[in-house]
Structure formats: C-alpha cells, structure tokens
Amino acid sequence: QVQLVESGGGLVQAGGSLRLSCAASGRTFSSYPMGWFRQAPGLEREFVAAISWSGGTTYYSDSVKGRFTISRDNAKNTVYLQMNSLKPEDTAVYYCAARLSVSRVVVPTTPEGYNYWGQGTQVTVSS
Predict the structure, then answer these.
(1) Could you read off the pLDDT of 89-109 as tens digits, one per residue?
(2) Bridge partners (DSSP) listed for residue 121
(3) 26: left (phi > 0), else alpha (psi -120 to 50), else beta?
(4) pLDDT tens per residue across span 40-60
(5) Distance (Å, whole) CA 110 – CA 28
(6) Which uninterrupted H or E stretch holds 117?
(7) What is the rounded radius of gyration, in angstroms, for the C-alpha atoms of the chain?
(8) What is the spatial distance between Cα 56 and Cα 92, in angstroms, rounded to a whole number?
(9) Does residue 84 contact residue 66 with C-beta atoms inside 8 Å?
(10) N or C, which end of the chain is more exposed by having fewer CB within 10 Å?
(11) Please, which residues bridge with residue 60 across strands?
C-alpha cells in the first residue's frame, strides 16, 4: 500500500510560479514511477508529467513542456512539480499518482497506468 499527500497548491497570478509536493509513505518510494495529473471542472483527468523510479527519465504533456519540471527526492520520499509561467488554463486540481507493478520500468502517461492516488491540491491561476 502507498499513501500520497499533495501540498503546495494555491492562488497565483498569471506568469507566476508554484511548486507542488507529493509525500509518499507505505512502500519503498524509490521502487516505482510517479506521475502528476490535473482535472478542471467538467473535464477529464489529464496527464501533466511523469518520472521514472530513478528520476532519470521524465515525460511531459505538450501543454506544459518547457514550463513545468517534475523531479523526485528518493531520500525524502517526495516528488515535486515546479510550475513556472503559469496560465489561467493551468487552473485545476492537481493529483499525484504512483504505479506499483511487477515492472517498474514502465512510466505511464495515462491515469489507467497508476493504481495509487493522492487527494489532490487546488491550483488557481488568475488573469
């Protein structure tokens, strides 16, 4: 079992920055890939970024590439999402997710690829 707790959300003006954190507990953090997703009202949950178990490989959606950076600190059991140059369309609830699987090599970019989720943190970007 894995427990995930996000933090760092809030209200920011367009062009500003936020850093989200996701603290994990319950299983060896360094053994599984992690992802960030977001969901705006009335829309489906969408992929934002993902990172391999070692941190050596990262993936981003086209909408955030160049503005967001995913990273992890396995010693602190935490994954981060640094968000710069924020836009009003980035407004959503942001969720972190973990994939516990026999194969830790696969890094999914769809919600179906993850089996543990945090409760979410609200990010609101004002224009």
Answers:
(1) 999 999 999 998 877 788 999
(2) 94
(3) left
(4) 999 999 999 999 999 999 999
(5) 22
(6) strand 116-117
(7) 14
(8) 27
(9) no
(10) N
(11) 49
